[in-house]
Protein: Alpha-ketoglutarate-dependent dioxygenase AlkB
Organism: Bradyrhizobium iriomotense
Amino acid sequence: MTADLFDSLAEAQPSREDIADGAVLLRGFAGTIEHELIAAVRAITAQSSFRQMTTPGGYQMSVAMTNCGERGWITDHTGYRYDPIDPLSEQPWPSMPPLFRDLARRAAEEGGFPSFAPDACLVNRYEPGTRLSLHQDKDELDLSAPIVSVSLGLPATFLFGGMARSDKPRRFRLVHGDVVVWGGVTRLAYHGVAPLADGEHALLGRQRINLTFRKTR
Ligand code: MD3
Ligand code: FE
């Protein structure tokens, strides 16, 4: 069976897989609303474009990012933070589409976290060769809330490490439509994304888009 055929079968049959303590992989959970999600991403980026941010250490990230919701994650020479204003447009971030909110809430519930109310959605764009090095997400005040991630476009190899940066990461393939709920002790695990392999996605072309829903306060 080809990888593409396998992916389409997986999308057609949503499944639930526990991948770690508090982390649940919902294969194909977002597949049924793929067109609406992509249209919403386009509307968001028309207001707040994708941009490559620079870390406090002076490195330009290879992944391009934007946000929607009440606050957006940004990094610059001063640090990392959630800010209500997009520094590029100098306007508030686009509001979070109800479709996004509902998807995140339904997924979190499925993953065992009822009434998840995200106030921020970070939108990451990967082009072939781009990667996200191992890191922890700890800029959110309420670490009892999960993070919900939605993968669209080209498949990626997700690196899932432990509580120490030196723990050898496990590798997961995440494909278009996959949703993961990251909660519990997993919330502070190191994680990243391996350099994106080149390819062509039927709806998104040569890119992968990842949405992460967060409750930041
Ligand atoms: C596990 N994004 O935006 S999503 C990020 O595919 C980020 O773009 C990756 O890491 C991406 O911060 C991974 C999956 C994810 C997100 C947050 C986590 C996994 C996580 C937080 C804790 C543990
Ligand atoms: Fe992260």
Notes: The first strand starts at residue 15 and ends at 20. Residues 57 and 193 are 20 Å apart (CA to CA). The chain has a mean pLDDT of 95.
